From TrEMBL:
CDD domains: VOC_like (cd08357). It comes from the Bacteria. Residues 5-134 form the VOC domain. This is Glyoxalase. SUPFAM superfamilies: Glyoxalase/Bleomycin resistance protein/Dihydroxybiphenyl dioxygenase.
Length: 145
C-alpha cells in the first residue's frame, strides 16, 4: 500500500520472535530490516519498528484508560484507519482466532459527525492497538461536531 507521507513508529516489545509472529505472521505485516534487537514492519504502508526491551517480561502494561463514548480507551495506543471492508475482515479474523478485545468491535459516535467503526486489543507485549474505519474516511476523519 503506497502512503503519501508514511509515519514512523517505534515501540517496545518483550520478545522479538513473539513480535514477528504477531505482527508479521498473524497481522500479515511484511518484514523489512532487522537485527537481534529490533525488527521493521510495513504496517499498512507505514514504517513500524519493534525494539526489544527484555525488562517488559516482568513489567505490567500501562493501565491508564480515558473515557470515550462510554468505554475506557487504553492510553497510549496506536493503529491504522482502514477502509471499512478491511476493518471488518480484520475484526472477523481477530474474533475467529480468539483475540481478547479491550473494546469489542463496534460503531462509535453512531449517527454523529465522525461516526466510526473501532476496536481495541493488545499485542503480546501489552501494547494497545486501535483499528478503525469510517464510511467516508475523506470527510469524516477530522470532522467536528
Amino acid at each position: 500500500m503506497a502512503v503519501k507521507d508514511p509515519f514512523h513508529l517505534a515501540i517496545q516489545v518483550r520478545d522479538i520472535e513473539e513480535a514477528r509472529q504477531f505482527y508479521g505472521e498473524f497481522l500479515g505485516c511484511p518484514e523489512g530490516r532487522s537485527s537481534n534487537a529490533w525488527v521493521d514492519f510495513d504496517l499498512y504502508g507505514h514504517q513500524f519498528v519493534c525494539h526489544l526491551n527484555a525488562a517488559l517480561k516482568d513489567a505490567a502494561a500501562s493501565a491508564h484508560k480515558n473515557p470515550v463514548d462510554g468505554h475506557g480507551v487504553p492510553v497510549p495506543h496506536f493503529g491504522v484507519v482502514l477502509e471499512m471492508d478491511a476493518w471488518q475482515a480484520l475484526a472477523d479474523k481477530l474474533k475467529a482466532h480468539g483475540v481478547e478485545f479491550e473494546i469489542e468491535p463496534y460503531i462509535r459516535f453512531k449517527g454523529e459527525p465522525g461516526e466510526q467503526a473501532t476496536m481495541f486489543f493488545k499485542d503480546p507485549s501489552g501494547n494497545a492497538l486501535e483499528f478503525k474505519a469510517f464510511k467516508d474516511r475523506e470527510t469524516q476523519l477530522f470532522k467536528k461536531a
